[in-house]
Amino acid sequence: MIVKEVESTNMADPDLLEKIDQLFACNAGEYIDLPQLVVVGDQSSGKSSVLEGLTKLNFPRDSGLCTPFATQIIFQRKVNFVGREISASISPAPGLSTDEEQKLRDWNATGLQTLSVKGFAQMMREVHKFLNLCDLQVIGTFGKPTFSNSVLRLEICGPQEDHLSVIDVPGIFRTTVHGVTTKDDIALVRNMVYNYMKNPRSVLLTIVPANVDIATQEIIEIAREIDSTSERTLPIMTKIDLVDQGTQNRVIDMIEDQNTSGKLGWVVVRNLGQRELEDGNVDRDLLEEKWHQTPPWNRVQAEKFGINALRKHLQHVLTSHVRRTFPSVRSETTRRLNAARKAPQSLGSERQTPEQQRMTLLDIVSSFQQITNLALAANYSLDDIFDTDQDVRLATMVSSRNEIFSDHVFTWGHEFAFTDTSQTDNIPVPEVPEKPEGSEESVGPSVDFIEEYKPTKQYKVNFIPSRRI
């Protein structure tokens, strides 16, 4: 990811990250969560400056160009490339119409060797236009949406790039601007940030300016909610040059406090100010080194101060995190790949030609005949259909219907009800079963008939046991 002078500046294990990059290249990130960096923070917290220091990209800082959509920067190492090659595209947000989605997919910029501040700003404005968003510097765009769930995707290839994906999301804000932002925009941005942060395989870079009260930084609370163990949250403090001298020691004490720093600990960076950026001749690394030698900032450990320290710290964090999450990525990828391969098989063989169609019909008939034979033989263990659909267990159903029919014949299949003549007492009146619902005639003789025609002699009746059908 970083233009390296020595091999040790790799952001993480190149072999593992190359495998992750291959998954990104085939859009697997749309289906499974992949390890990536997510840079989050409030508006004007210094996110762009931190990203510029890490990626060596010239992010625009125009006041009219706050981040209105997520930007995904994918770095790929191509050993056969000479220098950088940059391409840009738009990943449409879910829920767009087919025409809108196709319009966004048609936009792209390829073959770029560099991306200057001016060129990056021009690209952002062009994406603004395609997303039909409000632009404070363009008349006639007021009243349009200010933010979008679509993603600007930058792919940067070169022989010295690290395999890595970085997501820059819009900054959280709490106050609306009349005619520009609404309460719905506040909720949209918060949900967007939350959705990117909740990816359990992402590393969160939470940007917090040192010149504000940390208790007011909502991003810290969200990070604690999502990553309660703080295993993948790396807090970064910016704008230390704007801290009052009276509060500098308090800020340093907070940096050293493990209750606020989490497992990974704070990293302090000194971003360039507006005048220093306009000068263009200020070396950031030298400036940060000078600041670190100045009290009280010299109290901060060297491995926690400056963009270079952040890069090295991030190397260890990423390596550990990717190694920990890669087995689950591999297993989930394998599972989804196997499911995708089995899906076409469920459609059956090809049947484009008449001959293929005839063969398909013969296969269906043969399969039906085989299932029927198994059903008649009650051999249910040889086909899964008998487990999923109990109604096709034909032998069981026939036996059950025979039992029901036998019971019905035994109960209702006679005109007169007889009693055993072995007894010499008066013949008791037999109980007549209730008439089945829907029957038009009574079953068996009536009570009056039996009383009137009760025989004077006893007749021996030989009962033949009913035979179940």
Automatic annotation (TrEMBL):
Region named Disordered: 329-355, 422-447
Any one GO MF annotation of this record: GTP binding
InterPro entries in alphabetical order: Dynamin, Dynamin_GTPase, Dynamin_N, Dynamin_stalk, G_DYNAMIN_dom, P-loop_NTPase
One Pfam family from the record: Dynamin_N
Highest taxon listed in the record's lineage: Eukaryota
One example of a Gene Ontology biological process annotation: mitochondrial fission
One Gene Ontology term, aspect cellular component: microtubule
UniProt keyword list: GTP-binding, Nucleotide-binding
Ranges of biased composition (kind: Polar residues): 346-355
Coiled-coil annotated spans: none
Domain Dynamin-type G residue range list: 31-327
PROSITE patterns referenced in this protein's UniProt entry, alphabetically: G_DYNAMIN_2
Identification of the protein by name: Dynamin
